[in-house]
Amino acid sequence: MIKGSIVAIVTPMTPAGDVDFDALAALVEWHIAEGTDAIVAVGTTGESATLNVEEHIAVVRKVVEVSGKRIPVLAGTGANSTAEAIELTQLAKAAGADAALIVTPYYNKPPQEGLYRHFKAIAEAVAIPIVLYNVPGRTGCDMLPATVARLATIPNIVGIKEAKGDLSRVRELLALGLPKDFALYTGDDATARESILLGFHGDISVTANVAPKLMHALCVAALAGDAAQAAAIDAKLALLHKHLFVDPNPIPAKWALEQMGRIAGGIRLPLVPLNSDYSEVVREALRAAGAL
After folding, report:
1. Which residues, including other chains, have CB under 8 Å from residue 116's CB and lie 6 or more apart?
2. Which of these is catalytic: 133, 164, 185, 213?
3. What is the mean pLDDT of residues 85-99?
4. What are the structural domains of the chain?
């Protein structure tokens, strides 16, 4: 089981919008040096929605290649078509991903039985560890704990990223009596500390894009049950947790990394560069975390 700080890494792009593979490689090396525990390639933060299939798998392949088995790599392979999700997951496995992070189908709002059958079909079609991903604020679809419990009985469904941002949901999942080796990750940086102290195993993080060392330290402290140390670290990160979402993710995170000199300013429509009204609050958050 992977534990700790798992970065949902951005996909660097040139100003023209092409994937910048050199910058991506440099980010992977930086995360390994800073202590990040695993990388999610081409998740929501990686702009999966605007990469074509060839680019999607090329990004996964690059992250796998650069990481060189020094750090686990999860590939985002979700889609609102079960057949497409199976295809992406097969391609990610062939590219060397250690696991797949698969978001609930978006837009078409399947019922709970549809969610169960969707993930069951993917798991049966591709022999790769699968982490479920629930983010109702993005998808318009909420996978309920009872459905998670059903899916947890399928051998290669090994965990969930729960990004509802609600500690009551965290407690519901913990109360299910899921298998001990079923990984529970939060996808909400603002409640990551509390979630891990309650019993979650880590955080699939946006904040880790710009403050990887501190996010790793936060997770280490929380996993050890050191509430005081975790709170002290989290206080330095609190503004990032908030202000990296002043515009839709990953707009602020990419702007922040550009300010840090780690990537160029490329982003793809329909996303646009950070609204200048927000630049100072994001800069303030970076300073508070010691990232600038």
Report:
1. 147, 150, 151
2. 133
3. 98
4. 4-226 (3.20.20.70)
